[in-house]
Amino acid sequence: MGKKRPQTTRAGKPQAQLKEGEIPVVGAREPCPCGSGRRYKACHGRAAAHAVTELVQRPFEGLPGECDWVALRELVPAATAPLHLKDGLPEGVPSVTLATVLPMAWPALRRDDGSVLLALQNDTSSGDLSRDLADTLQRALAAEPGTPVASHRVPADGPRLQDLLDTGAAFEPDVHSGFEFWVPDSEKSASPEVAASLERANAAAIPTVRLSGTDAAYWCETPEKNHLRWVMPHPEEQLLDALARLHAAGRSSLGEGTRLVGSFRAHGLMVPVWDLPTGMGAKECEQPAADFAERLAEALAVDAPLTAEERRARGGLTNRQVTLS
User: Are 82 and 97 in contact (CB under 8 A)?
Assistant: First the structure.
């Protein structure tokens, strides 16, 4: 069998060979960026697959605000949160901010003023989201100001967010109505590409509000009805039992016209979901959610076996679970 010819550009010139650390991640069937002429999955993609770490079910475990990390990763369109580094900010980096998404799906961005934005909702290359994000953060801190950070294959032995962030600092998300935070006030205009990406993102964003009285509970508005999606830290089996007890007793709603309809599984945590009437806004959810938190705490403290009616309620809740990640 003859040797594969080097991959060429459209102009017919051989593509420059990339060094091992420079080879980006691409689609499995695309030509490998190294220039070998083979598909990525048969070339450097094979090594990347072998380097994928074992799936970490709870990548944000041990970080303050784990439930909010999950919410910002899976549920919230536009939000930011300041990040505090364990060893302090490097020279020339005035701030580090977590963002749900960035323009053109950049994994991270080093702004002109040296500040860093780290995107949370991008696809990652390994089974450990925390390790992927830590690698992107490190590269963003070292990038030249005004430079976006590209995706690449992450070393399996690199640090995780838990190694880089100050786990004693509070995690305080700020939910936005749109993505204007992409463009700082100091910049009068965005590039045409960023402006177009901003317009598309704003058009697709679902109005979302974080409740102030309960942890990691997010109200959102859709054309048909409103919802409350609440990321909870309790072990799944224990939480299902508690929700079943409340559901069987008719105490699982958030008031008239509301209904507990099921739950998501996301990054090792459960996210119960309630349907709400269209007229029930985030402010109207605050007290019902606080009252439900008290009922849930009582139900979580019960360790008696479930009754037949409670087991049926649990089965119904289990059947309405959807796994996001």
Answer: yes
